Amino acid sequence: AVVSTQSTGEESEEEAAPVTKKRKTEASTTVAVKNGKPAATPKQNKKPQTPSKPNLNDLKKKLLASPSLPKKYEKFVNLMKNAHKVTDDKEIKTTWEFLQKNKK
Q1: Of 5, 85, 90, 91, which residue is most buried, by most CB within 10 angstroms?
Q2: What are the tens digits of pLDDT across the range 8-58?
Q3: How far apart are CA 46 and CA 23, in angstroms?
């Protein structure tokens, strides 16, 4: 009888255990999702990346090999500023003149 009393006592504790446990709410288990992927935690030591100055000689070779270039100077300025991140007007002008002399 002593053995059955202990097992009965254990069963009543087990039955009471799920009632006393706190369930996790949906808010605590949800993870921020961005574009279908869980959002990454931001890194503390990340330094802002500064754009390096583009090498104009390499850029000139790349532009000469390009199958389509703007035919007007204004559109070329837009291409250089937005796609190649060249902001110096003097460099853009010299590159434009180089391409006009050397294009096929």
Answers
A1: 91
A2: 554 544 455 555 555 555 555 555 666 666 666 666 666 555 556 678 999
A3: 37
Distance between CA atoms of 21 and 45, rounded to whole angstroms? Answer: 39
Supply the pTM of this predicted model: 0.50
Tokens at residue 50, please?
A: 């500064």
Q: H-helix or E-strand containing 37?
A: strand 37-38
Q: What single-letter amino acid sits at 26? A: E
Helix (H/G/I), strand (E/B), else coil: 33 = strand
Query: Is the torsion defined by CA of 28, 30, 33, 37 positive or negative?
Result: positive
**63 neighbors 69 (Cβ within 8 angstroms):** yes
